[in-house]
Amino acid sequence: MSFAAKTDELLNLARSRAPADRERLLLAIVDLCDAGDAAVGLMTSQPVQALLNSIFMSLVVEAERDIRRRLSEKLSAAAWAPPALINVLALDDIEIARPVIAGSPVLKDHDLVRLLVEATIEHQIEVARRPDIGPPVVAAILQQSEPAVLTALAGNASAALGAHDLERLVEAAERHAAIRSPLARHPALSGDLAARLYLWVGQAIRQSLVERFRLDPAALDAALAASVREAHAGAAAEACEGRTLARDDEREDMERRLVAKLSAAGQLRAGYLLRALKEGRLPLFAAGLAALGRFEESQVRRALDSDRPELLALACAAVGIDRSAFPTILAMVRDLNGGRPGGGSEGARRASGAFGPFDANIAGAAFRQTVNPG
């Protein structure tokens, strides 16, 4: 079909009010995304752009979810995509919005800042993960101080983070444990900031900081001991600790709400648990594991804090996690949980036996029976 004929076909479909024609129009645009330079010329022509910009809002709202998802995937790298369409897709359900938030060149800093203000936490996290986000976006993330979004920003090595921005993340890491692990790996972290971060992280992260920045562990451990003594010295420190605990409680409540939302939408999967650990979000991992396995959160927490990693292995087997993935999960949990569950390498060896030749229901029943006291 010639360029002119294709243009006429798109214009005719765009003018039609019939739902079937509107769906055909969106599908035609999806197909054009793979058609090369000719498609770019067609889509950037003035009559097509003018008409499509005027009707895209209603088109996308009325389109089926699968079509919107396909549009988002296909248009995520298209510089010619109409800005109105991209912004609508970016505010859609997170599974639809994720590709355009992650990669659309049409989204500018002000669009991303608007997402941080108007969209859900999941959308904000995707903004913080977007490659090469600029200083205005970084500033907006830091100003809002949402822990989950700060954690995603700390793990974004390509974000435009200045020394002051990293300092603010280190300050936030004192209050929010999830930020510490990705921040410790950030390539722009300085030795001075690493020394401050050392005081709040677990043993495994401390060792990596010592090796990377050639820190003096004896001096840092002495500083840590001094800070602990100061923390217990008076009523003011005790009140501060109470406020920190309250913030931690708020954080865990937020994680539970996120898990409940994902579960209700049928989006909670075993793979999400590994992602939570990679982001340093142990409360989210615990809440997700409990929801997937229909366990009590107290049971999961008991397994995490025990000296028997086989309990955690049984819970993981019950939700479909593979034996091969468990050593990684155990290492990350120990890193985030002060070395627990304990048991060392021998405990890890015992844990592999939890992935025996039995189905998930049996593993779940064994977990409930074993983890309960008495």
Give structural notes.
With 374 residues, the chain is mainly alpha-helical. The protein has 4 domains: 101 residues; 65 residues, no CATH class; 45 residues, no CATH class; 134 residues, no CATH class. It is built from 24 helices and no strands.
Protein structure class: mainly alpha
Q: Which runs of at least 5 residues are low in confidence (pLDDT < 50)?
A: 234-246
Total beta-strand segments: 0
Largest sheet: none
Give a concise summary.
The protein is an all-alpha fold. The protein is 72% helix and 0% strand. It has four domains: 1-101; 108-172, no CATH class; 189-233, no CATH class; 238-371, no CATH class.
List keywords for this structure.
374 residues, mainly alpha, 4 domains
Blueprint (SSEs and pairs):
Blueprint: H1 3-15, H2 19-32, H3 37-43, H4 46-62, H5 65-75, H6 83-90, H7 94-103, H8 109-118, H9 121-129, H10 135-144, H11 147-154, H12 163-175, H13 180-184, H14 191-198, H15 203-213, H16 217-231, H17 235-264, H18 270-278, H19 282-293, H20 297-304, H21 309-318, H22 326-336, H23 344-352, H24 360-371
Helix pairs in contact: 1-4, 2-5, 4-6, 5-7, 7-9, 8-9, 8-10, 9-11, 12-14, 14-15, 17-19, 18-19, 19-20, 21-23, 21-24
